Amino acid sequence: MKKLWMVVSLVVMMVLAACGSSEEEADASAEGGEKETVTIKHELGTTEVEKNPENVVVFDFGALDTLDTLGVEVAGVAKSSTLPDYLSKYEEDSYENIGSLKEPDFEKINSMEPGLIIISGRQSGAYEDLSDIAPTVYAGVDNENYMESFEKNTRALAKIFDKTEEADEKITEVKDSIAQVKEDMPEDKAGLVTLTTGGKVSAYGPGSRFGLIHDVFGVPAADQEIEASTHGMSVTFEYIAETNPDYLFIIDRDKVVSGESQAKKLYDNELVDQTEAKQVYLDPAVWYLSGGGLRSTEKMAEEISAGMSK
C-alpha cells in the first residue's frame, strides 16, 4: 500500500511539473515568442518580413515619403544623394547614411542589422546582395501603371507597419486631388513634358517616366508620337516651337544633381518665345527623386493644378 501511495505521489508530481512547464512556455510565447510576419510580393520577388521591423533602411525617397506620412520611423536613408526639401529632416545625424541612390554602403547597412531594406529601380541591381543582409522589398513605381503600382506599394508598406487604415485614408485624399485636376483640365489644351540636363532637353510622352502628367492627371499630349522611355526623347527647341504646346512642363535635373539651375536661362530663347505655351516649372526633387510617395503624388497634383491656373 505504501509503495502504491509513493507511485501515485510521483505521478501527481510529474503531471504538475508538466503543467507548470506548459504554462511557462505559453507565457514565453505570449511575451516574446515568434513575431508575426507578412509576405510581400513585389517586382523582384517575394519577401517575408516581420511586422513592425526595427532599423529600417530606405533607399527609395518615394517610400521614405510614404513612411514619413504614415508616422513610421526609419533608421537609415541614402543621404549621399540630394534629399527633397520636404524630407530634409532625414539629413540629421540621428539617421544613418547608407550611401547614395546608386551606390549602397554595404558595410554600413550590414553593421546596422536592419529588419527591412526598401529599394527601387536605381538599386535593383543590388537586390540579391542586399537580400543577403536583410529582407529587401522593391517599392519602385511602374511608369506605365503609375496609380496601380503607387497604391500597391503604399498598401504593402502599410501592411508591414500596421498602418492600413491610415494608408487607405491618404490614398483616397490623393485620388480626390487627382480627380479634381482632371475635372479642371480644359479638353482643348495640350501639354509637353520636358527635362533639361547639361544644356540638353528631352521630351516625355504617355507611358514614360513622367507620363503620369498625361496618363494620371489627364493632360492631353501635344505629341502622341513620343516613344516611352526612361531617359526620354532628345529634342531641340525647334521641335518645341513646332509642337507649340499650350503647357510646357519643365523639370530641371541639374538643380537636384549639381545644385545649379540652368533651365530658365536655357528656355529663354526666341524659339520658345514664339510659342503660346505657359511654362510650368515643376519641382525636380519631387518629380525626379521622390515619385510614388503619398505626399509627392499629392504635390504633383498641386503643381499641375497651379500650372494650369496661371
Automatic annotation (TrEMBL):
Residues 55-310 form the Fe/B12 periplasmic-binding domain. It is found in: Cell membrane. Keywords: Signal, Transport. It is a lipid-anchor. Residues 1-17 form the signal peptide. It comes from the Bacteria. GO terms for biological process: iron coordination entity transport. The keyword Signal applies. This is Iron complex transport system substrate-binding protein.
